[in-house]
Amino acid sequence: MQASGLIAEIRQLKKHRNAVILAHSYQRPEIQDVADFVGDSLALARYAQQTSCDVIAFCGVHFMAETACILNPSRTVLLPDKEASCSLESSCPTGELTDFLQANKEKNYYVIAYINCSIGVKALADVIVTSSNAQQIVETAPVDRPILFVPDENLGAWVAEKTGRKMTLWRGSCHVHRLFTRDQILQAKQQFPDAQVVCHPECREVVRLLADHICSTEKMINYCRQSSAKCFIIVTENGILHRLRKLVPGKDFISISTGTCGCAECEFMKLNTLEKLRNCLRDMSPVISLPEDLRARALVPLQRMLELSC
Ligand code: 13P
Ligand code: SF4
Asked: Is residue 216 lining ligand 1, measured as CB closer than 6 Å?
């Protein structure tokens, strides 16, 4: 079926189900365009918590849809492709974290978990952070307890540097962001000498050191809009380029090529398609369902995050 036919069907089904379509900035352009709201992890979590729609069709990866369900359990949360996982989430299995905390019980770690993790890990955390509020939240961590930051060692190292707080870092990383290299950035800078380098904090330190600005996907939009520069080298997943070009017209955005596809692409994010979005609204499946006791435990650190980043 043609995209226009699918879009018309999605709009009809959305009305029929009283649904809202949320999309992360790394989604395919056609999904971003049909969504009611596009944002970063924090903005999406807030939107999902507040929506009065009966159904949330979440175009993102599993932990994001799961977070929506933790925050707003009376809604039905759909994920167009249930295989949409996340390498950062996979790098910190709940069992391994449980064992680590058990083996280091005497340390009484204050556990800070990046939102890119499973519900089991969230339930073990004291507080959750996203890339846009991590610095602010780490600053509020108790000074009399050692901090364990999971699962992203790169985001953790960046926040430790920004806040001066010492943290034990879980050795996890994102398979998309860890592929960016220093040479790639240097080459791009040579080709576009007037461009500013804007990079996501999930990138490795060697890459972050070459950046003019480091921030979450949402903050990239504001930064590029407000900056007097006309050209930007964007060091993150390429889905954000669609949003940047749409919301910041008249400026140039250069992407860095990595990975087997020759572009910085998260294959999990790209699993969602218009067809699968139509199917999930039609069939009301795949649906996210969570054990209530686990949901209630994971809600506590998530709510703490939302309160602290008001
Ligand atoms: P943001 O919260 O910045 O959108 O990041 C989410 C993510 O998965 C980055 O890889
Ligand atoms: Fe996870 Fe990386 Fe994909 Fe973000 S880009 S969803 S961190 S695998």
From this structure: yes
